[in-house]
Design brief:
The protein is mostly helical. It is built from 5 helices and no strands. It comes from Ferroplasma acidiphilum.
């Protein structure tokens, strides 16, 4: 089922790039951004608070269901959302290398680094343990908390990017 979390966004990503105009491109970019931010709100706020009071065994059981989907979804959103945003800015002819866009690019890179240096390796490590039937519940619980903390950071960074983009759309 996790592959669906990559294939469907990939199809939407390609369609948004090849269909002329900005309507579909804007729609898919905003949809992806909302989904990604929503997942980070869930993982970073709600999930973190809920997981904090659970035993490692329960955290590990939860991760068994969650991890396959996240293994594909997080990398897809980490790549597709910023690329669609860049394509949208280029297509609308509003992209310039001023302080606002430099801030957005910098934060986008930071988001990708958090995804690919912290979240994806933790997800893959948990997934690998499940696939080899070598489940370390304590380790999985700690990794899941690491994912939740990194998602919290991503949530804050995404709110900053959304604010900067809204400023650009309204005032520039």
């Amino acid at each position: 089922m996790g592959v669906i979390a990559l294939v469907i966004p990939l199809i939407a990503f390609i369609a948004a790039l090849i269909i002329p105009g900005i309507l579909i491109l804007d729609y898919v970019h905003v949809l992806f951004g909302a989904l990604w931010t929503g997942v980070d709100v869930f993982l970073g706020l709600i999930f973190f608070i809920v997981l904090s009071g659970m035993e490692d065994r329960i955290r590990s059981d939860i991760s068994f269901r969650l991890i396959p989907m996240l293994l594909y979804f997080i990398p897809a959103m980490s790549v597709f959302t910023p690329l669609l945003g860049f394509a949208l800015a280029m297509r609308e002819n509003i992209f310039r290398l001023d302080y606002l866009f430099i801030a957005i690019i910098t934060i986008s890179i930071a988001l990708a680094v958090v995804s690919f240096a912290v979240i994806v390796p933790a997800i893959y490590s948990i997934y690998k343990g499940f696939k080899s039937n070598n489940v370390d519940e304590s380790r999985n619980g700690k990794l899941l908390m690491r994912i939740a903390k990194a998602a919290s950071l991503q949530m804050v960074l995404q709110i900053i990017i959304i604010s900067l983009m809204a400023y650009i759309v309204v005032y520039i």
